[in-house]
Predict the 3D structure of the following.
Amino acid sequence: MSVYLDTSVIIALIVDEPASESVRNWFRNSTDRVILSDLVRLEFSAFLSRAVRTNRLETDQAAAALGSFDELRRACDTLEHTPSDFNRADELIREFSTKLAAADALHLASALAANVGLLTLDERLRQAASSKNLATAVP
């Protein structure tokens, strides 16, 4: 099976977070083909930049995390977002019941278009994906 990982999972995989142990265990034991998107790359870099600005991480820690992400990305399949993904994300946001932010709507739209499962730590995104009959998992 192929599974799209959103940024919340990548953060927990690479940076110590409350869910890191379970995410790392999932990743070690998974046989799924992992897909990362351009949006995940951008959001992860933004997360690290904010972590440095707020003194949560030192610059060298953030640089090491970026290196780990780049290595992981080379080992995974990548997904580029299409104009159709942006259109579908807009449709998802306009369904006010999904309560999705723009980035999460784009993650969901892309996973739907690729017809792959979604691994996320974000409960709102997981619920929206489930409402669209997309297979979801929480590590």
